[in-house]
Amino acid sequence: MEIPATWMRGGTSKCWVFRRDDLDVPGMSVDEVLLRVYGSPDVRQVDGVGGGTSTTSKAVILSASQREGVDVDYTFAQVGIEAATVDWGSNCGNCSAVVAAFAVREGWVAAQDPSTEVRVLNTNTDQVIVQELSTPGGVLTEDLTTAIPGVPFLGSPVRMGFLDPAGRTTGRLFPTGRERDRLPDGEGGIDATLVDAGAPVVALRAADVGLTGHDSLAALDADPDLLGRLDAIRREGAVAMGLVADVGEAARAVPKLALVAAPREEGCDVDVLMLSMGRAHPAIPITGSVALTLASRHPGTVVAQLLDDEETQADQLVMRTAAGVVTTYVSETDGQVVVGATRTYRRLAQGVVFLPDPPTSTATHRILKGEES
């Protein structure tokens, strides 16, 4: 079976973009379709289109919206790699960067002169993202003019503002009602800020786990004991935030974990090292940067403790990541807070992906349903 798809880079991630209706396959759930198309479960995803990493095993599912004040409904899926799971629990801010351009190319939104605004609803988090593209003369040129950290080549810019992002998953910016909590860590407890904005994030001081905040990603990924400890803390955070009832139920992708430290370079506000899907993230998820930005504006958080009073009230946050400097902005529109950043995107390929005939063997069914490795 052929499924129309577009392969795109959004920010520092890559994703396959699908129209929602194209994923309706008789006899298969959307989860099963994605797992088979991506080649999961398999650490290499060798028989599918997945890239074998958390940043390259993502799906963007889109449709023209019927909701008032919204142009596009956007659902994000983090497709499991080793496990036959699809995580629908959060958004990917980097992949969000592809939505506006896709909608204009599909004719869902008419291009205006000199720029076009596209209002996107992320259905995972009920979050409206206002995106702005350059469309001189009412034409989407997609000129490659802009660089961002974590991407070696230029891309097409899109300005993205998350409208009133606090509490989109849990109902509150600080789900526990506190700006700082004490989580079990197997070693007497650790201070953490549990924040929900853009996506749920557990933020720790890097020094509290024996790191600097600008550590080698390869060294971190090669330390299974530390990764295990960090994931255990993250899972405790998921319970404290009310996302799950038990640590064993915590999803791999939600919440994310951020390690923050005082900046080592002048001109930055904070150093950030983030983990995603149990590994060090090569840059920073945009949704994570939104969460840290709002956390930085509250003096009791582990982020704000690294800043001076003036920085906590600034209209931007400058973060040094493993890939380079990321700057977010804070503004207001119609009385609502907007937190955002400029990202880039690029169309990589367009055509179809091939779904084999629906599996019929018992063994294949068990693999897709996670009953066998």
Automatic annotation (TrEMBL):
Which Pfam families does the entry link to? PrpF
* SUPFAM superfamilies recorded: Diaminopimelate epimerase-like (SSF54506)
What InterPro entries does the annotation carry?
Answer: PrpF-like (IPR007400)
Q: Spell out where the chain crosses the membrane.
A: none
Alphabetically list the UniProt keywords.
Answer: Isomerase
Q: Name one GO molecular function term.
A: isomerase activity
- Family designation: Belongs to the PrpF family.
User: What PANTHER family has UniProt attached to this entry?
Assistant: ACONITATE ISOMERASE-RELATED (PTHR43709), DUF453 DOMAIN PROTEIN (AFU_ORTHOLOGUE AFUA_6G00360) (PTHR43709:SF2)
Q: What is this protein called?
A: Methylitaconate delta2-delta3-isomerase
Provide the species name.
Answer: Janibacter melonis
